[in-house]
């Protein structure tokens, strides 16, 4: 039984988890390592860390964080945000990250995908794509969703996979933060198009949204941030619900 | 002391972290003299069959002989390298410790097989009574031993393949026990017990 994955995402800025949390049980709910440990204990299938400080001075801090997480968390985790060179990738993987996610740097320099995949294997290379609806389909944005690249989401996905991306993390800019559910059309179209796993992101607001994305698209995983952080929804509760509704899941 | 064999491919940090958590001392080493002193050996592995064999080639005979003597754990590619050959790298010989070959998945499902899947135990004699559990996989190829009796557990991904193979002192897992949560750690704990015997 190949399981669908539930992935909490932590936005990290200068080694602190951004956005308050409701985890009263934690000594320091702003500590990414503490929070990652909690998600690990709750049987999250994977964890994604997005570094939104993304400054060069911060690189060393991120590597230290990765190595602290790797000593506490025995499930795969991905790190993304501002990664732009093979040296960055190598440092993060060596510190214990299983995958890196590339976004703006891969758009600016698609060769980075190819080089990273050759050097570290496709399994370690996730392409994060922020997509927004247009009249004709979806267009890709870079720089944290602030810059329209003019790239068509489907074309970029195919290109990224052909260059060696092992997984796509697709965030709907339209749905992000709305709690109105994942963009099912976008996720369905992409997960049908590419042969690699697609992670749906942006818009999760309730348990049913996860059921829908697994039922109506070929997404392999679903990601959420605030929903889990604020304690609105617990991962064990979500997984139990999905299992009871016939979704293959690791409970 | 357990030696984690470092041949410049794959992340040894996570394997070491898992053993540290379980209270076992490990060293990451590319030196066969140190492997020889260890009480147990681990061959982790990420990357391609051919590239890995190329990297261990100069030490392959020492390695092959040590694998027959000490408690040994091969993970993922480290499992596949025990076989005679792989469809991933035609013309390259593996260590040939287990008879059989490594095949590529060719069904409708995405390759690599990435994520959590069920490990169904078929023979628990060498697994210290572990029962079925979920484990984390990342691989495009699977092992096909000539002797089916060596298969201790299977997993289904379009087809059934061996996810745990064991023979005497040799334990091989296609999944990553160091990334498979508490169940993975339990398997590693059992390996540590073997090493300490």
From TrEMBL, chain A:
InterPro entries: Aldolase_TIM (IPR013785), His_biosynth (IPR006062), HisF (IPR004651), IGPS_HisA/HisF (IPR050064), RibuloseP-bd_barrel (IPR011060). It is an enzyme of class 4 (lyase). Keywords: Amino-acid biosynthesis, Cytoplasm, Histidine biosynthesis, Lyase. The active site is at 11, 130. It catalyses: 5-[(5-phospho-1-deoxy-D-ribulos-1-ylimino)methylamino]-1-(5-phospho-beta-D-ribosyl)imidazole-4-carboxamide + L-glutamine = D-erythro-1-(imidazol-4-yl)glycerol 3-phosphate + 5-amino-1-(5-phospho-beta-D-ribosyl)imidazole-4-carboxamide + L-glutamate + H(+). Pathway: Amino-acid biosynthesis; L-histidine biosynthesis; L-histidine from 5-phospho-alpha-D-ribose 1-diphosphate: step 5/9. GO terms for molecular function: imidazoleglycerol-phosphate synthase activity; lyase activity. GO terms for cellular component: cytoplasm. Its EC number is 4.3.2.10. Belongs to the HisA/HisF family. IGPS catalyzes the conversion of PRFAR and glutamine to IGP, AICAR and glutamate. The HisF subunit catalyzes the cyclization activity that produces IGP and AICAR from PRFAR using the ammonia provided by the HisH subunit. NCBIfam families: hisF. PANTHER family: IMIDAZOLE GLYCEROL PHOSPHATE SYNTHASE HISHF, IMIDAZOLE GLYCEROL PHOSPHATE SYNTHASE SUBUNIT HISF/H IGP SYNTHASE SUBUNIT HISF/H. This is Imidazole glycerol phosphate synthase subunit HisF. It comes from Candidatus Bilamarchaeum dharawalense. The gene is hisF_1.
UniProtKB/TrEMBL annotation, chain B:
GO terms for biological process: L-histidine biosynthetic process. Its EC number is 4.3.2.10, 3.5.1.2. GO terms for cellular component: cytoplasm. It comes from the Archaea. InterPro entries: Class_I_gatase-like, GATASE, Imidazole-glycPsynth_HisH. Residues 4-193 form the Glutamine amidotransferase domain. It is found in: Cytoplasm. Keywords: Amino-acid biosynthesis, Cytoplasm, Glutamine amidotransferase, Glycosyltransferase, Histidine biosynthesis, Hydrolase, Lyase, Transferase. Gene3D superfamilies: 3.40.50.880. One of its GO terms (molecular function) is glutaminase activity. Heterodimer of HisH and HisF. HAMAP family: HisH. IGPS catalyzes the conversion of PRFAR and glutamine to IGP, AICAR and glutamate. The HisH subunit catalyzes the hydrolysis of glutamine to glutamate and ammonia as part of the synthesis of IGP and AICAR. The resulting ammonia molecule is channeled to the active site of HisF. This is Imidazole glycerol phosphate synthase subunit HisH. The gene is hisH.
């Amino acid at each position: 039984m190949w399981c669908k994955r539930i992935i909490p995402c932590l936005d990290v800025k200068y080694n602190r988890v951004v956005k308050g949390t409701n985890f009263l049980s934690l000594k320091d709910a702003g500590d990414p390592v503490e929070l990652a440990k909690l998600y690990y204990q709750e049987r999250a299938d994977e964890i994604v860390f997005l570094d939104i400080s993304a400054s060069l001075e911060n690189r060393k801090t991120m590597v230290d964080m990765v190595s602290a997480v790797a000593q506490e968390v025995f499930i795969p985790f991905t790190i993304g945000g501002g990664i732009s060179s093979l040296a960055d990738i190598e440092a993060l993987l060596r510190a214990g990250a299983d995958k890196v996610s590339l976004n703006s740097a891969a758009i600016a320099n698609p060769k980075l995908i190819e080089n990273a995949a050759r050097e570290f294997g496709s399994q370690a290379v996730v392409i994060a794509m922020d997509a927004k609806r247009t009249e004709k389909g979806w267009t890709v944005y870079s720089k944290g969703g602030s810059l329209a690249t003019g790239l068509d989401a489907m074309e970029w996905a195919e290109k990224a996979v052909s260059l060696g991306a092992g997984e796509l993390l697709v965030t709907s800019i339209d749905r992000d933060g709305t709690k109105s559910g994942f963009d099912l059309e976008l996720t369905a179209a992409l997960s049908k198009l590419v042969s690699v796993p697609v992670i749906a992101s942006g818009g999760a607001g309730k348990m049913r949204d996860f059921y829908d994305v697994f039922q109506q698209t070929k997404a392999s995983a679903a990601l959420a941030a605030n929903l889990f952080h604020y304690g609105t929804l617990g991962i064990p509760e979500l997984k139990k619900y999905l299992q009871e509704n016939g979704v293959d899941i690791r409970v | 002391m357990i030696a984690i064999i470092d041949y410049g491919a794959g992340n040894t940090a996570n394997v070491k972290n898992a053993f540290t958590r379980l209270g076992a001392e490990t060293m990451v080493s590319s030196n066969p003299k140190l492997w020889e002193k260890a009480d147990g050996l681990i061959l982790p592995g990420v990357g391609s069959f051919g590239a890995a064999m190329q990297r261990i080639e100069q030490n392959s005979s020492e390695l092959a002989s040590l694998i027959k003597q000490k408690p040994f754990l091969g993970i993922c590619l480290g499992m596949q390298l025990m076989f005679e050959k792989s469809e991933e790298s035609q013309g390259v010989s593996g260590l040939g410790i287990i008879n059989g070959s490594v095949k590529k998945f060719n069904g409708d499902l995405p390759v690599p097989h990435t994520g959590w899947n069920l490990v169904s135990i078929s023979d628990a004699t060498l697994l210290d009574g572990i029962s079925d559990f979920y484990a984390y996989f990342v691989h495009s190829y699977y092992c096909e031993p000539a002797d089916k009796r060596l298969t201790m557990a299977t997993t289904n991904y379009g087809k059934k393949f061996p996810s745990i193979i064991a023979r005497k002192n040799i334990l091989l897992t296609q999944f990553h026990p160091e990334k498979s949560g508490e169940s993975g750690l339990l398997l590693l704990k059992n390996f540590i017990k073997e090493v300490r015997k």
